[in-house]
């Protein structure tokens, strides 16, 4: 029987959900049974033998929902292989220093459950549709807008992560 893997995510504007779906598709291609779900819809972890959990980065941090999810389920998550991914805009620049800073967004969840792998992917930011607060911040820091997601990076990460999730 194929192993069942959970891909759980949080998102504010949908771009991380699409990254999670792409990871799920890639895991299915290599034979896994996969559920891709928002973290706040997950009630039972018992069907899963591995989990991939991701969040967008806002002001240097993960959204609270996946952190709460990991905290609440840390006992179970410590018994299965887990991988984390972050989606953010700073990492369109793939320099080691920028990637290290973006990796710090996962420090809190790494303390709870140690992952077998982490991924950091460029995201998407459109000024239309943002909340008033987010629009104000984006204007203030003059953030660049556009879709910078790199599906090749996401897909090859998913393939590599599958090997680690199933080997552990
Ligand atoms: C108010 C605001 C703050 C952000 N802060 C960061 C940040 O600190 N680091 C980063 O890499 N990206 C940052 N971003 C970019 C988001 O992480 C990026 O747009 C991501 O793709 C959004 O994911 P979502 O559509 O799933 O919510 C920020 C975006 C907004 C609107």
UniProtKB/TrEMBL annotation:
Domain Flavodoxin-like: 5-168
Pfam families the record matches: Flavodoxin_5
InterPro entries cross-referenced by the UniProt entry: Flavodoxin/NO_synth, Flavodoxin_dom, Flavoprotein-like_sf, Protoporphyrinogen_IX_DH
Domain of life per record: Archaea
Molecular function terms from GO: FMN binding; menaquinone-dependent protoporphyrinogen oxidase activity
Gene Ontology BP term (one): heme biosynthetic process
Protein name listed in UniProt: Flavodoxin domain-containing protein
Organism whose genome encodes this protein: Methanoculleus submarinus
